[in-house]
Design goal:
With 186 residues, the chain is of the alpha/beta class. 26% of the residues lie in helices and 27% in strands. The protein has a single domain, classed as Alpha-Beta Barrel (fumarase), CATH 3.20.130.10.
Length: 186
């Protein structure tokens, strides 16, 4: 049974322990944007024992490369990108304290195992709704890798960003279970 839940980022173990696949979440607080090029750089910093541009403990990363901000707005269209492109890096970041990821599409077995082991969560955002999602973004500031353009790491302040829990710490996978549920329907 899906539930409606409001959460504040950064996230805690208790936050992710309370979530189940299918839950509808309105997320507020501070989150970060990063796509594959930024993920690669973050992991390289970690491999070289260099400080990261933000604290991973409890952090949520949104997989997005937003459009330029129109006049008077903090950000342009900000729809999710396909998450599997970050799968090579996500388990490493999760092990270091990343609590949440936002994107679209399924995740690898390694990411799902890291979610279970380290108590993280994968949220799905609605693809094709970038302009609507942008309305939940209160502010946007580039904090690292400006040379990556739209893929630079940004710190976003969000208010009631609508999300769905796709993978939870209990091994639930909304994409898999949802498909099975409809495959069994008469």
């Amino acid at each position: 049974m899906s539930r409606d839940i409001k959460l504040q980022a950064p996230l805690s173990d208790a936050d992710v322990e309370s979530l189940r696949i299918g839950d509808r979440v309105l997320l507020s607080g501070i989150i970060y944007t990063a796509r594959d090029a930024a993920h690669k750089r973050l992991v390289e910093l970690m491999d070289n024992h260099q400080p990261l541009p933000f604290d991973l403990k409890g952090a949520v990363i949104y997989y997005v490369g937003p459009a330029p901000a129109p006049p008077g707005k903090p950000i342009g269209s900000a729809g999710p990108t396909t998450s599997y492109r970050m799968d090579a890096f996500a388990p490493i970041l999760i092990a270091e304290g990343l609590k949440g990821m936002i994107g679209k599409g399924g995740r690898s077995r390694e990411v799902i195992e890291a979610i279970k082991t380290y108590k993280a969560i994968y949220f799905g955002a609605i693809g094709g709704a970038g302009a609507l999602i942008a309305k939940s973004i209160v502010s946007s500031k580039i904090i690292a890798y400006e040379d990556l353009g739209p893929e630079a790491i940004r710190m976003l302040e969000i208010k009631d960003l609508p999300l769905f829990v796709i993978n939870d710490i209990y091994g639930g996978d909304l994409y898999q279970e949802g498909t099975e549920k409809y495959a069994e329907a008469p």
